[in-house]
């Protein structure tokens, strides 16, 4: 989506925020729009025509510049700022994901966001032993130079954040930064805003919903080199985070527990599936040491020049749509089978996407909805 160069201007940041807040535009669609049109301003201008050609009767709703200026001003009053994917303080490992949020709201240290990170997650109803273990791991791993990332939940997350507070920790919100959750962790969050960092991809006043927590979890794992699961039931958000970490190519670690404790069911299952066995911080540090040699660069990036945009003919559009179905298919395969130019295929996919007729999958595959 981007190439090395100067950082975005304030006006460009505003356009990025407007585009990612637009109806039907998620991180993957945002990336496709920027790759196709070069700038967020050009993409915003193209949205109505794209949606109409995709079969949508109404225009996708975008927030006004005034609304986004107000959000940015409110964030600034909280001592926060926006970090876009081309900024030096945008988490480098997160930038590599195809569903990385193009814009993050941030409170706290830029240096921590750029540093190598390890996530520690686990049960909300954690045992005393689990909390002690999470705190010990967090302290020792942070003391070795890693920043500890977690989701600010009760139990294991809270223990990990608290133990690493004076060394470096980042909390990821499921809602907006103005809607901290859970309420009992607000004092901890305020300390982290000064000594650590808090981040969110959601609008500032967004109230977190159940489906926002798995979304949050992909950021916890995505900005980290590895994820340590301390306690987790067989059906838990922590196992979702571990699965996401594996899909993202991150290292997965698990602390073993008693087979009699349901809070160890998930971690023991991870160990059976090949997760790295952890009883002390050295188990994590030894596994991650080689990865530091290949850690993503923190160099800033800026948008590429707009790509050429040949308009697909009605015949090309029909052939491209005919090749789509409920089974995820890669755009390269659609280009090959349709005989259309890659840019024409991307335009048709964007048309369908903005009309609500396309689903984007991990790795770039797409499928037709309905």
Shape call: globular
* Major sheet: 9 strands, mixed
* Class from secondary-structure proportions: alpha/beta
Could you list the spans in which at least 5 consecutive residues all have pLDDT below 50?
Answer: 298-307
Distance between the termini: 29 Å
Give the ordered list of helices and strands: EHHHHEHEHEHEHEHEHEHEHEHEHHHEE
CATH architecture of the largest domain: 3-Layer(aba) Sandwich
Give the count of structural domains. Answer: 3
Strand order of the largest sheet: 2-3-7-6-5-4-8-9-10
User: Strand-residue fraction?
Assistant: 5-15%
- Number of helix segments? 16
Backbone CA Rg:
21 Å
Number of strands: 13
Specify the helix fraction band: 40-55%
Determine the mean pLDDT: 91
Give the class-level CATH name of the largest domain.
Alpha Beta
CATH topology of the largest domain: Rossmann fold
Question: What's the topology here?
Answer:
Elements (H helix, E strand, L loop, with lengths): L1 E3 L5 H11 L6 H11 L2 H14 L11 H13 L2 E5 L7 H4 L7 E6 L1 H5 L2 E5 L6 H16 L3 E4 L5 H8 L5 E4 L13 H10 L1 E4 L11 H11 L3 E4 L7 H11 L3 E4 L10 H8 L3 E2 L3 H8 L12 E3 L10 H10 L7 H8 L3 H13 L3 E3 L5 E3 L2
Keywords:
single chain; 370 residues; alpha/beta; 3 domains
How does this model look, in words?
The chain is of the alpha/beta class and 370 residues long. It folds into 3 domains: 2-79, no CATH class; 93-294, Rossmann fold; 314-368, Winged helix-like DNA-binding domain superfamily/Winged helix DNA-binding domain (Arc Repressor Mutant, subunit A), CATH 1.10.10. 44% of the residues lie in helices and 14% in strands. It has a 9-stranded mixed sheet with strand order 2-3-7-6-5-4-8-9-10, sandwiched between helices. Helix 1 runs parallel beside helix 3. The longest helix is centred in the middle third of the chain and has 16 residues, at 128-143. It is globular. The chain starts with a strand and ends with a strand.
């Amino acid at each position: 989506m981007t190439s090395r160069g100067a950082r975005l201007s304030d006006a460009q940041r505003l356009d990025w925020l407007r585009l990612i807040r637009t109806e039907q535009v998620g991180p993957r669609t945002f990336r496709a729009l920027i790759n196709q049109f070069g700038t967020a301003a050009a993409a915003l201008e193209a949205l109505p025509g794209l949606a109409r050609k995709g079969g949508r009767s109404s225009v996708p709703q975008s927030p006004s510049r005034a609304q986004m200026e107000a959000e940015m001003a409110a964030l600034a009053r909280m001592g926060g700022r926006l970090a876009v994917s081309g900024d030096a303080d945008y988490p480098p490992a997160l930038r590599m994901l195809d569903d990385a949020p193009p814009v993050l709201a941030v409170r706290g240290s830029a240096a921590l966001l750029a540093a190598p990170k390890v996530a520690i997650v686990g049960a909300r109803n954690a045992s005393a032993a689990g909390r002690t273990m999470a705190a010990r791991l967090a302290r020792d791993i942070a003391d070795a130079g890693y920043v500890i990332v977690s989701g600010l939940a009760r139990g294991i997350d809270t223990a990990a954040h608290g133990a690493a507070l004076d060394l470096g920790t980042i909390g990821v919100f499921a809602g907006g930064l103005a809607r901290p959750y859970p309420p009992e962790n607000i004092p901890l969050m305020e300390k982290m805003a000064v000594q650590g960092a808090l981040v969110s991809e959601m609008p500032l006043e967004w109230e977190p919903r159940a489906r926002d927590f798995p979304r949050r979890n992909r950021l916890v794992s995505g900005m980290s080199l590895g994820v340590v699961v301390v306690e987790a039931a067989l059906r838990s958000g922590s196992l979702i985070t571990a699965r996401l970490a594996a899909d993202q190519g991150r290292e997965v670690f698990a602390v073993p527990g008693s087979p009699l404790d349901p809070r160890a069911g998930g971690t023991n299952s991870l160990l059976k599936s090949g997760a790295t066995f952890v009883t002390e911080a050295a188990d994590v540090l030894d596994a991650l040491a080689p990865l530091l040699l290949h850690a993503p660069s923190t160099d800033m990036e800026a948008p590429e020049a707009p790509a050429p945009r040949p308009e697909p003919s009605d015949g090309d559009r029909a052939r491209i749509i005919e090749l789509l179905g409920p089974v995820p298919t890669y755009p390269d395969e659609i280009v090959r089978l349709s005989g259309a130019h890659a840019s024409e295929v991307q335009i048709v996919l964007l048309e369908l996407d903005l009309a609500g007729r396309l689903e984007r999958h991990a790795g770039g595959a797409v499928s037709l909805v309905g």
